[in-house]
Amino acid sequence: VKHVKPHQVLAINRGESQKVLSVKIAVSDWLINKLHDFCKYRWLRTGYEYPLRLHFFEKSFKDAYTRLIHPLIARQVRSTLNQEAERAAIDVFATNLKKLLLTPPLRGTPILSIDPGFSNGCKAAVISSTGTVLAAEVLHINFKPVKFRSPHEDPVAVRLKQLLSTHSCELIGIGNGKGCRETEEYLSQLIQSGWFQPMDVQYTIVSEQGASIYSCSSEALQEFPKLDRNLISAVSLARRVQDPLSEMVKVEPKHLGVGMYQ
């Protein structure tokens, strides 16, 4: 039991609650024998070990251990493990949340964000140095390697360059969800080919946790009444790079994906 980690305890509890597995606390024979010897010494001392008394003692000990003692030990062990696991989970959550909320901001920097996607396209948004939405649209990126075709023939590459140059933006934030790796490779090839020159375009990876939930919330609809919900998540990603604290507080902590078991 002492080797079970807090995150393993939480995983076991979750599996048990979903009836995927059952949990049983096994007590070592050494402990059972020690308890048996103690009880025998306490209630069956020398001179009282006649057969009937010994038989009654053995049956009583077996019944007491099976019906009362073992369940009590199991409950106490599970309770101790759960308390330690919950305490550790809270500590991990608090530490990770603090680091996330205190991420250094990039204020005063225009940012283009991309919320990657395949079938429905990539949602893109550009915000000004003050967080104002300058542009928001869907880009259908062709994830084939750029080296096999000219960026001039790629409408998405042309549009990205236009957005960056129009709004004097040199930083791109990429959501870390599905399609992140492909989008990163796509942008890397464009940057390496010198497509965005003379601008010094760079990119960073942004956590998407909670962005989609926020985009469907009433607060987001009040803040962006005329903006499509799918594009709100892209705006949120850009603002997370520019001012993480101001944007993260809009999402419930449980949706930020910083817990031990997330």
TrEMBL record:
Classification via InterPro entries: Ribos_protein_bS1-like, RNaseH-like_sf, Tex-like_dom_sf, Tex_YqgF, YqgF/RNaseH-like_dom, YqgF/RNaseH-like_dom_sf
Species of the source: Cuerna arida
The YqgF/RNase H-like domain, residue ranges: 109-215
Protein name from the UniProt record: YqgF/RNase H-like domain-containing protein
Domain of life: Eukaryota
GO molecular function terms noted in the UniProt entry: mRNA binding; structural constituent of ribosome
Pfam families reported in the protein's UniProt record: Tex_YqgF
BP GO annotations: nucleobase-containing compound metabolic process; translation
